[in-house]
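Task card 7
Instruction: Convert sequence to structure tokens.
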Amino acid sequence: MLIANRTPSNAESLAERVGGRSLPLEDLPGALRDVDLLLTSTGATSVIVDHASVADIIEARAGRPLLIVDIAMPRDVDPAVALLDGVTLLDMDDLSEFAASGRAERGLEVQRVNEIVDEEACRFADLRSAREMAPLIASLRGSIDVVRAAELERLLGSADLDASQRAAMEQFSKALVAKMLHHPTIALKDAAGSAKGDRLADSVRDLFDL
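Output:
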């Protein structure tokens, strides 16, 4: 990395920090024979890299491309340099276009990110609502099962049934209760988190004294 500055001490200081070496500003044209990139950013009021000085070194580069990035205001590099074969010249206008393009691309990504956030927020709300309804559903099923078990025990206590018959009755009663509670359970889950869900939940609590 080569550092050129109108003030040699400034060039030496920067070169030391970045692990490069300094050179006099007047040696810049000769240095263009070897470098891959020239970055210019001076406070000069006129062009310091002209078409002729760059044209002189193009042949010596033997076809190797040269990228010049001029971020000075006003420009350090003659715009005509961009017409030379093998030379790419970028200035603040080009960088502004790149930045605008980058912002536009990021804007599209931001839109997609917002969509993902909205989707996940809705999914989280649905899960949270379902979890909030889960204790009520469990309480309802538990309350009904207590009644089922008590009534089954009362029935079987006076019936002359063997173990397999008792097990069949147990299974039948559980299946019957499960089927009867299936649609109310689905309705509570589907309406969770809505005004309708709140009304259904209140009704279940009142009807079954939960």
